[in-house]
């Protein structure tokens, strides 16, 4: 008796084949390779700016963490600094109390931020955009005031000082020129970016985009919307915690501002500048914002924010989807549709 596959099996196999055909191509493109070679070249070309460049990479990682929930999950947050600050204080307090080993402290910071993010996710995923804004903002403000109140533990407005970092991998000591901090930040950023790039290009990442574009339809195809949003929110919190820990370790200081609302607001500006839902948008936005801030504050320390605001308005009006979105639109206009298909 010949074996004939059942209709349900056939439908399942067809669905899996169709899904695989629509998965994004996760092969590294030449422009991506060039992008990651730039920080390597900067290490040799700009040795006097390594401290600033390492800060750009840390802020870029922080922005990528927000992009996971905003650009892919569609969750708007005004309190993402809460997880950044938790990571910073975790690494800082560990160092102050004698645990100065960098890598294990980063991992613990990620766990603390992820645990807090998981608990908060149950509140966040239940509401609409306005509710999520208020919940995340409220939690951020509460955590900021809690850290301020516990000055005996966190240092309060004076900040947490007295950090003593151990040698990285037991061999490389953090130096005043920022060389070790730069390489350390770059490696952590690159490793995490590779993992997140694979994540957003997976079926899980596609389901997040589906939730963002039409969350009410996703349950019809068997997707547990709230569960997936909780997962990505937890991952986002963990990445933000890593960024905060890197900042604390490379500067050996934790200020109360790591939990402040301005840091969350700046993060949204950075994503708007670079472009949401692209991962690279957070990195590009961080570079534009921080380089512009450094240059403009040098020209006019009192009114540099005016020019940042003007830049933001120009980007929003003339480059839909941020800088990367604007470049993509320009490419679509310059490259004929047929040639685009050949290049893909």
Summed up:
By secondary structure, the chain is mainly alpha-helical. It has 15 helices and no strands.
What does this protein structure show overall?
There is one protein chain. With 344 residues, the protein is mainly α. It has one domain: ABC transporter involved in vitamin B12 uptake, BtuC. Helices cover 72% and strands 0% of the residues. The chain contains 15 helices and no strands. The longest helix has 27 residues. The termini are far apart.
Going by helix content, strand content and strand pairing, the class is: mainly alpha
| Total number of domains | 1
The succession of helices and strands, N to C, reads: HHHHHHHHHHHHHHH
Note the overall shape: globular
Number of DSSP helices?
15
Task: Characterize the main sheet.
Answer: none
Q: Which labels suit this protein?
A:
mainly alpha, disordered N terminus, 344 residues, ABC transporter involved in vitamin B12 uptake, BtuC
Write the layout of secondary structure elements.
Elements: H1 7-21, H2 30-45, H3 50-72, H4 81-96, H5 102-124, H6 129-149, H7 151-154, H8 179-200, H9 203-214, H10 225-251, H11 261-274, H12 280-299, H13 304-318, H14 322-334, H15 337-343
Helix pairs in contact: 3-8, 3-10, 3-11, 3-12, 4-5, 4-10, 5-10, 8-10, 9-10, 11-12, 11-14, 12-13
